[in-house]
Design goal:
Length: 197
Amino acid sequence: MTKNKEWKLKDALMIAICAVLFGILLLGATYAGGILYGILAPAGMGSLGYEPFYGIYFMPAAFCIYIMRKPGTGMIAEILAAIIETLLGNFFGPIVILSGVVQGIGIELPIALKKYRDFGRPVMITSAVVCSVLTLIYNCFVSGYKMIALPILGVMLVVRIISAVFFCGILTPILGDRLSKAGVLRGYAICEEDAPA
């Protein structure tokens, strides 16, 4: 468990840097999803276009909370990354900021239920799954997904979960652990907790 939950300047700087980097990545995922949407649309499967990339949208929260291990870091990083994505020209507009709030809650909720003491792979994977389900429910009410046929909606959820588990439950911890071992994250909770007692 992280002993020091107090915020420091370096924490704010880390979140800011991550928000910019992930904001660019999120914009790329949005355009890639748009291309795939266009390819699948003639077959009536356009709704699936964004799903393979959904795990990328959850990464700002997953990465920041995994390395910093402080309450709120995932939520703040997700919202800031969504703001950066919007400013860079996301064609969905400011609504993605609200999506960022939902995504931040989805990633952080299972970790909060563990009282920010457990950041193992099972918890990160659980966060990815919870976030997938929560965001799809959100999409049904805000993005009109409730008009999509249930079988297609089910396929969308499965693809979204697979994407989220890969990007947030597997790739994010690997990335965080490797950066930690390389000394890039020295001074952050991930390094403190990995250090010998």
